Amino acid sequence: MTHVTEDDLDDLEFDTLRTGDHTSAARRLSELAESVSGGVSRANVLLRAGEQWQHAGDHDRAAKLYRQAIEDGGETYGDARAYLADALFELGDADEARRLVEAIRADAPRDPEVYRAVAEVLYAQGDATGAHEWATTGADVVLALRDRAVGTGIVSGEAADDAPGSFTPGPDDVALAEDSLEALLRLRYRARIDLGQAEDDYDALLDDLLKNA
After folding, report:
1. How many C-beta atoms lie closer than 10 Å to residue 198's C-beta?
2. What is the CB neighbour count within 10 angstroms for residue 206?
3. What kind and span of H or E run contains 122?
4. Percentages of the chain per state (helix, strand, coil), in multiples of 5
5. For 93, phi and psi rounded to 5 degrees?
6. Which are the contacts of 208, defined by CB distance < 8 A and separation ≥ 6?
7. CA distances (Å), 143 to each of 1, 109, 129, in order?
8. d(Cα 75, Cα 26) in Å, to the nearest integer?
9. Which residues partner with 4 through β-bridges?
10. Tens of pLDDT, residues 87-110
11. 167 exposed, middle or buried (CB, 10 Å; 0-12, 13-18, 19+)?
12. Residues 180 and 138 sit within 8 Å (Cβ to Cβ)
């Protein structure tokens, strides 16, 4: 068995960004997934291996590893179903990809990164309406957390109570969610431009974030 930490995986991916050799990284991660012990879950390594295969253009192998990550059931970052949906779209299986997207929606995840991932997948497929919806809901998750923590944001009152991911947040929950907000609002803005929609309060919030960056 091989002890692997998140830092080990990050280092491997950093080296891959430098070399551009995603195939070698995918093979290495696939091997690690079969012998990983402690530090990180097998599912997490499988998910990272799938991403590298996808970067290498092998969407079929990526899909197989994403399925293995889902079947494994171990802890992963985000939602492996969103990554599988991305690979399936690339493989031409839009029906199954959209079924996965709807399954994620039904679970009402409270991690805004899941909403960002799905919104990016849909936007890449030319579905600006779907991307806009997912990015907006993801932003609402962040803003609802902010409302509960400090009493600010667009979502408030009953809207905050009804927003996906309703729970009592801790400081770490809010900090991590805030990290996703700008990306969600940027994606939402691009989708609104494509849809020919006028700027709204969320776009004004994005302007404020960019001014204060």
Report:
1. 6
2. 19
3. helix 112-124
4. 75, 5, 25
5. -100, 70
6. none
7. 43, 14, 21
8. 19
9. 39
10. 999 999 999 999 999 999 999 998
11. exposed
12. yes
The residue written with tokens 């390594």 in the block is 45
Contact 202, 185 (CB under 8 A): yes
Instruction: Give bridge partners of residue 193 from the DSSP assignment.
Output: none
Q: Tokens 């290495």: give the residue.
A: 28
**In this model, does residue 199 exceed pLDDT 70?**
yes
Three-state SS for 196?
Answer: coil
- Alpha-carbon gap, residue 122 to 125, rounded angstroms: 5
Residue 146's identity, in one-letter code, is R
Q: What is the pLDDT of residue 8?
A: 85
The closest alpha carbon to 118, from 131, 127, 128, belongs to: 131
Locate 18 and state its tokens.
Answer: 């430098």
Residue with tokens 């890449």: 124
CB-based burial of residue 187 (10 Å sphere; 0-12 exposed, 13-18 middle, 19+ buried)? buried
What is the sign of the dihedral through the CA atoms of 22, 23, 24 and 27?
positive
